[in-house]
Amino acid sequence: MGLPVSGLYKVVPDMAGVREYIAYYAEHRHDPPYEIDGVVVKIDQIELQRQLGSTSRAPRWAIAFKYRGGSYHQAARYRVNVGRTGRVTPFAVMEPVKVSGSTVDGPPCTTPTSEAQGRADR
Q1: Mean pLDDT per segment of 10 residues, for the chain of length 122 residues?
Q2: DSSP letters along 51-72, please?
Q3: Measured between alpha carbons, how far is 20 from 116 in angstroms, rounded to an integer?
Q4: Where are the beta strands (DSSP E) in the chain?
Q5: Radius of gyration (C-alpha) of the chain in whole angstroms
């Protein structure tokens, strides 16, 4: 029994190896028989994992590196959704398009700048 594990993992000795692995799959991410949108980098030394600890949401010894999407489409119009707590979330309304096997027709409105800032704030 157990969970299925990808055979694409690689143990590397240093950050240069991590960078090479990320760069390799940036160019070859469509080669596997399934879609990948990034790689997960983990520290595998248990003592170092303990020292790094975790936040309330995620371990500090693991991070997901996501690749940019492949194509962009112009939105036909923009709308906002008001959640039950009053939070306003803008989203685009556009012709449906296939993205990595899913149909998208109302993506949230984020910019690379705001996404990068959100990661930097964490």
Answers
A1: 85 94 91 87 94 91 83 70 88 76 72 48 46
A2: HH-B-SSSBTTEEEEEPPPS--
A3: 22
A4: 38-42, 62-66, 77-82, 88-93, 97-99, 102-104
A5: 18
